[in-house]
Design brief:
- The protein has about 80 residues and is an all-alpha fold.
- About 60% of the residues lie in helices and about 0% in strands.
- It has four helices and no strands.
- The chain has helices spanning about 5-20, 40-55, 60-65, 70-79.
- Helix 1 crosses helix 2 (about 40-55).
- The longest helix has 16 residues, at about 5-20.
- The chain starts with a helix and ends with a helix.
């Protein structure tokens, strides 16, 4: 699966959880850049991404994620 395909599925997960698509996801995107991406919705997004990709993130991976690029890198390493 290409990085673009992964990003597309990740965006779908964000839209599903946040219930809007008024944002762009890039490698540099952080929670500060997306309306509604807060601590509670963050965990909902992570859970949805795990479901979509049928993976389970390790706690250390989650702690080291600082932006969408880190999320994509972790997904790539898990699939």
């Amino acid at each position: 699966m290409s990085r673009e395909e992964i990003l597309s599925k990740v965006k779908e997960a964000f839209v599903s959880v946040l219930e809007h698509s008024n944002f762009q996801l890039t490698d540099e995107t952080t929670a500060d850049d997306v309306d509604g991406w807060e601590s509670v919705t963050h965990m909902m997004i992570i859970t949805e991404v795990e479901r979509v990709f049928d993976i389970k993130f390790k706690l250390m991976d989650l702690m080291n994620m600082n932006n969408v690029g880190d999320l994509l890198n972790t997904i790539e390493s898990e699939i």
